[in-house]
Amino acid sequence: MENSLPSIPAKRYFTIGEVGELCGVKPHVLRYWEQEFTQLRPVKRRGNRRYYQHHEVLMIRRIRDLLYEQGFTISGARNKMQEMMQSQRGLKKEAPGENDLDDVFAEEMVSGADDDMPVEEKELAMESAQRASSFQATSSLPTLRRELMDIRDLLSI
């Protein structure tokens, strides 16, 4: 599914037309989904124009996948999205101070990345950096070194 959709450009805000093209959904469907999925809240500016951020485009792609590819109903997709949000919150609550530190470390690792780097590559680098930062003290140094080298390679793409 994701392979047939165009990659998301590195922009801060997207118009409803751009999101429609990026996600393979018509604008009236996006407006309807805003009513059905409370997590989807684009910024509204003058003239009630909607501006979507990167995370909302990804969320729309998830919703599209649930509805069109996996065959969920609207209410089933809504429940699945709520479950995903709760599980993400649950992961953050498991180790309150640790995850915050991991996020800071990962952002520092990725901040040296090229600003021209595509968003998907930055996300991959961020995820990899988070994994590397969550290594326990019992990890061996060679393993840690190998993981850091992988992160460096991802950032230099």
Descriptive labels:
Multidrug-efflux Transporter Regulator, Chain: A, Domain 2, 157 residues, 2 domains, 7 helices, mainly alpha, 3-stranded antiparallel sheet, 64% helix
How many β-strand stretches?
3
- Output the helix-strand order: EHHEEHHHHH
Q: Which fold does the CATH topology of the largest domain refer to?
A: Multidrug-efflux Transporter Regulator, Chain: A, Domain 2
pLDDT under 50 segments (min length 5)? 108-114, 133-139
CATH class of the largest domain: Mainly Alpha
Described by strand count, sense and barrel closure, the largest sheet is: 3 strands, antiparallel
The strands making up the biggest β-sheet line up spatially as 1-3-2
Number of helices: 7
What is the CATH architecture assignment of the largest domain?
A: Orthogonal Bundle
Specify the structural class. Answer: mainly alpha
**Shape field:** globular
Radius of gyration: 18 Å
The helix content, as a percent range, equals 55-70%
